Amino acid sequence: MGLDRFPIxxxxxxxxxxxxxxxxxxxxxxxxxxxSIMQISRDLEESAxxxxxxxxxxxxxxxxxxxxPGLLAAWAFVFILSIKELNTSILLVTPKTNVLATLxxxxxxxxxxxxxxxxVVIESAVIIVTLMAFERxxxxxxxxxx
Length: 146
Known about the structure:
Distance between the termini: 61 Å
Number of strands: 0
CATH class: Mainly Alpha
Shape: elongated
């Protein structure tokens, strides 16, 4: 096998876009999660260890429930960044794997502004509905627990 062929062909598939989006959004998501992690006191983990909880039990019962809001915030932020990501998408899309950002750009270049406006309104509605779902999940989970 020569160096010119990679054994798994991912260019022109959805997987190359997923890999690119994950790579582009990892710094943003770790930044959001970092502040949530810093707010969890080590005293909580140490207290659980003193009463005999295992490492997995500490993660499951203490750390993960306290990280849920930060995880959901990171997912929401990454979702918005990925929806509107044009720079990466424009380099990696093919006619078979078109994404919304490149479709909006193509319609803009063609000058169909009415179609463009409708598509942007639909995109905004999808973002709003998704963020409302994230907010509902957060409020429902954490108000009922208190």
